[in-house]
């Protein structure tokens, strides 16, 4: 029996000396990072699918990481599209890799020895993680490919692999067969019977397969025999299923989830404290206090996967106990509201390789000043820059450079410069923006000798620097300040022939994303692959084109601020073609 590796691997009014919102940015960043982790690991998680219901009843309440999945992929709705796109992944039971691993490690096959008894639920659980060692990942030994848990961590961490059983006799036959095979290879086992459950423990093995038993209608493997003894004697009122934080996180997750990973808030809080201990000299005290308060209030993080009609959807949810955030921090969080219109990203050219819409808050300049002023080493940074550059940041930048922004990356009809793009910002005061850009242009000319000149794009006049295929310019499209690299990109910013919102992959993804949201990231994987082929780059793997072909697009977004459940949410969609 193989197990997936969870580590293989998403404005307030300015006031003097105001503390920034780093804790919430940490929370959002955490959600984003976790989204990327779960998205990147999804296809490697060949078993990761259906939500489990019973296994949390067997695990201790202090479980820190819990991942649940099912081996029965054929039972899932919408699975045929994925099976056709990725036959090697979704027919893992017949794959050569699975067969070799089972044969070499256990002397069994899936079809003959596992399929007859395995039920709808499987899970991986970890507790007792050595947080201090996790903060020093550079000191870890590399894992054995045949055993992804073969690092120093598994000697301290309690690791359990569980699988629900639908045929007790077949499950016992599997355990007997793999034990006999391991004994033939030299392993020796001791036995201990607790509550009529016989626990086998290897005298030499230190992996998660060191101990095993058939207990409470479940096949259990563990790296320590005492972990199974704890499970056998587990009281109903002290299980993971009864843990309040676990319940709160699970209830905040999407109802159509097919796979779930839970990480306890206490684990993240301890990890945050360990990391912040080394940052006391470089991070302002107020920021450290806010970060620690937010981490202490975190009840947990939940990650899910859903198989949808057009691909896979991944969700990340961080749930906070708002009563533990403190009045000041809770008030500032309440002032945050998503403010990016969904049309902002959808209005760009449908040929875009990627687009990212976001909000630049009105008080970002003040937040920057406060952050720099909090440390003696950086307190005079802006004043020194203003003096050396002869620029007034407040007048020339801060007072107008805010609003809804979008970054668009586009293919160009040039092999020398195949990629260009533009940044567009919807400003509230165009006159102030025009004056600010004039001063910045003058500074560039004086400092670097690069002069922006009047340039015509049809009926549109922009300021640009042109040299051969090189084009860098700026102009105003209504209240949008556009800064572009590449003439085609500038033209696209002023009038796309076909908008991204007309594309089905984007439109379908948008309907599945949280709304309102803090902005959208969309990557057209088909267009990226076509550009990659056009520029003539040789593929390192001849099969790479075929392997990438089913992937059409990635679309992701997240919320800003907490909902009524105290949850911060992020979603990533992986669109897959038939």
Word description of this protein:
The protein has a 20-stranded antiparallel sheet, with helices on both faces. It has 578 residues and is an alpha+beta fold. It has 21 helices and 20 strands. It is elongated and about 85 Å long. Among the domains are: 42-139 and 149-242, no CATH class; 339-362 and 402-558, no CATH class. A hairpin with a 2-residue loop joins strand 16 and strand 17.
Q: Characteristics of this structure?
A:
578 residues, alpha+beta, 20-stranded antiparallel β-sheet, 21 helices, 34% helix, elongated
* Overall pLDDT level: 80
Total number of β-strand segments? 20
Class computed from helices, strands and strand pairing: alpha+beta
Question: How much helicity do the residues have?
Answer: 25-40%
Brief write-up:
Pfam families: DUF3352. The protein has 21 helices and 20 strands.
Q: What order do the helices and strands come in, and which of them pair?
A:
Blueprint: H1 22-41, E1 65-69, H2 79-85, H3 87-90, H4 96-106, H5 110-114, E2 118-127, H6 131-134, E3 158-165, H7 168-184, E4 189-194, E5 197-202, E6 211-215, E7 218-222, H8 225-232, H9 244-251, E8 259-264, H10 265-277, H11 285-297, E9 298-308, E10 311-320, H12 327-334, H13 343-346, E11 354-360, H14 364-373, H15 381-389, H16 393-398, E12 403-411, E13 419-426, H17 430-448, E14 453-457, E15 460-467, E16 470-477, E17 480-485, H18 487-494, H19 504-512, E18 520-524, H20 525-534, H21 544-548, E19 551-558, E20 567-576
Protein name: DUF3352 domain-containing protein
Keywords: Membrane, Transmembrane, Transmembrane helix
Transmembrane segments: 21-48
């Amino acid at each position: 029996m193989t197990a997936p590796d969870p580590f293989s691997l998403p404005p307030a009014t300015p006031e003097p000396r105001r503390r920034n919102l780093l804790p919430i940015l940490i929370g959002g960043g955490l959600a984003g990072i976790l989204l990327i982790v779960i998205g990147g690991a999804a296809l490697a998680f060949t078993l990761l699918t259906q939500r489990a219901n019973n296994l949390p009843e067997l695990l201790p309440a202090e479980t820190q990481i819990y991942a649940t999945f099912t081996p029965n992929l054929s039972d899932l709705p919408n699975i045929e599209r994925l099976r056709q796109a990725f036959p090697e992944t979704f027919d893992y039971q017949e794959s050569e890799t699975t067969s070799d691993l089972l044969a070499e490690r256990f002397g069994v096959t899936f079809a003959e020895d596992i399929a007859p008894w395995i039920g709808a639920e499987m899970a991986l659980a970890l507790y007792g993680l050595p947080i201090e060692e996790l903060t020093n990942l550079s000191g870890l030994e590399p894992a054995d490919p045949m055993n992804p848990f073969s690092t120093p961590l598994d000697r301290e961490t309690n690791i359990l692999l569980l699988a629900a059983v639908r045929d007790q006799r077949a499950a016992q036959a599997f355990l007997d067969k793999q034990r006999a095979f391991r004994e033939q290879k030299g392993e020796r086992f001791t036995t201990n019977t607790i509550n009529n459950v016989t626990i086998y423990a290897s005298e030499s093995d230190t992996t998660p397969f060191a101990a095993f038993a058939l207990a409470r209608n479940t096949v259990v493997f563990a790296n320590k025999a005492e972990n199974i003894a704890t499970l056998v004697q587990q009281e109903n009122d002290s299980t993971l299923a009864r843990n309040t934080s676990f319940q709160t996180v699970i209830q905040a997750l999407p109802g159509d989830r097919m796979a779930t990973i839970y990480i306890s808030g206490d684990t993240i809080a301890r990890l945050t404290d360990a990391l912040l201990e080394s940052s006391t000299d470089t991070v302002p005290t107020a920021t450290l206090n806010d970060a620690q308060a937010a981490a202490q209030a975190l009840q947990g993080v939940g990650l899910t996967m859903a198989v949808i009609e057009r691909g896979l959807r991944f969700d990340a949810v961080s749930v906070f106990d708002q009563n533990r955030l403190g009045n000041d921090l809770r008030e500032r969080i309440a002032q945050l509201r998503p403010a990016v219109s969904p049309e902002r990203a959808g209005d760009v050219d449908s040929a875009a390789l990627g687009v990212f819409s976001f909000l630049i808050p009105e008080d970002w300049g003040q937040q920057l000043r406060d952050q720099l002023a909090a440390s003696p080493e950086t307190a005079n940074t802006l004043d020194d820059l203003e003096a050396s550059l002869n620029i007034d940041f407040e007048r020339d930048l801060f007072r107008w450079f805010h609003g809804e922004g979008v970054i668009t990356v586009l293919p160009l009809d040039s092999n020398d410069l195949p990629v260009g793009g533009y940044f567009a910002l919807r400003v509230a005061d165009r006159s102030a923006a025009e004056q600010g850009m004039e001063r910045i242009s003058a500074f560039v000319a004086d400092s670097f000798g690069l002069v922006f000149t009047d340039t015509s794009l049809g009926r549109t006049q922009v300021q640009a620097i042109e040299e051969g295929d090189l084009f860098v310019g700026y102009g105003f499209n209504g209240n949008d300040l556009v800064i572009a690299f590449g003439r085609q990109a500038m033209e696209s910013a002023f009038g796309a022939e076909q908008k991204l919102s007309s594309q089905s992959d984007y439109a379908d993804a948008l309907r599945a994303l949280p709304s309102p949201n803090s902005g959208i990231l969309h990557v057209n994987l088909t267009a990226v692959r076509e550009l990659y082929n056009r520029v003539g780059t040789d593929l390192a793997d001849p099969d790479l084109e075929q392997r990438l072909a089913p992937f059409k697009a990635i679309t992701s977004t997240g919320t800003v601020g907490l909902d009524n459940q105290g949850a911060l949410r992020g979603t990533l969609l992986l669109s897959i073609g038939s």
